[in-house]
Amino acid sequence: MLKVYEHEQVVCIEGILEETRSKVFLFLVDGMLIDTGAEKMQDDLKKELAKLSFDQVVLTHHHEDHTGNAAWIQQHYQVPIYIHPSGQEITDRHGIYPAYRQLTWGNRDAFLTQALSDRINSRTLEWQVIHTPGHANDHVALFHPESGRLFTGDLFVTPKTRVVMKGESISRIKTSLRKLLTLPFESVFCSHAGYLENGRALLEEKLTYLESLQEKILQLFKDGETPSDIHLQLFPKTYPIVRFSNGEWDSLHIVTSTIAEYDEKKSRHLRPRANTLGILRKGQSVLLEQQFARHSLGEGPFYRPIGGTTELGEPSAKTVAREFKEEIGADIKIVQYVDVIENIYTLKNQVFHEISLVYEVEFEQQALYDQDTFDVFEDGKMTKARWVSLEELEQRDTVLYPTGLLDLLKKLPSPVANKL
Question: Where does the record place the Nudix hydrolase domain (predicted)?
């Protein structure tokens, strides 16, 4: 059964699957179809799509409840279908699903896709494409800055998560929520909850809940409790989907995901870490984040460039662009590759080994050079970035990481005139 209605010039197609009473949405805005719904909706969906006009399909992720009709649409409408690059190899092949998922949603045939970049144009509008992994590695959200409309796929669903699918990452979901909460939106279009007029408040509520939940899990774990014991304490209720899915969905996965990521973070120093840093200059000053924490030279403030860890399969130039977008909400372009810095240091009696690829970058928006400070969002914390002169960096009591970066900065030629 389908219900079709409109909110904020968005056609909302609500599919209700009879066997399980499960609900999933697809949306149509400005000729762009967002998701295709489950295969079990196909007969009803054919009739609705015949009444509508669209030029392209954008998928929030590869799961079959969102892509189940993509192959049929491609065959009958010959429109391009876009997905995050990490989802392309998955949708190139027919989906293979356990019986309960086939009963709920149906199957998903293979189809061809084009890779999403960080922008996509509908008929008259430009949309930001925001990578929001956690529920799935290829998950994206879509945002239209002028209207404030935000499409969140499966990132939200409910403010208090009780069960998750095996393989989901609670920490990455939190990071993705924080990323979206830097955007100026209020309402949300969720692929399972539909139109949420108070979407910002609900996303904030979910983030607060997950942060509190993870704190409880880790405290119990540090106190010596096993994952099973923690699960029983925090989730005493048994949810029907656990048995129905044969454990693929379970609240236990929230506990084990949290503990696994905590253990991984603790052991990170046991292997080298590759990251990418962006040097953004204005005259003889560099945009640097200031942190106040313990570091390898002691306690107190220190500076570091915007940047972060390179994800598996991610080109380093993509990393630096992603980090600027995630941390300060700014679009940048690469000027040049500068060098690599290898840094081995000791912190809290542990040896760390970082290999940093350094790029010179510049803002795409010229007006950002007039901004004195920038809010930096990372790992649930907010710090500040500001322009710091080379003269200040050369002072004895100024700490800049990674070691060796100051020498690189001194060797760079003066920036172009419009960045002075």
Answer: 270-411
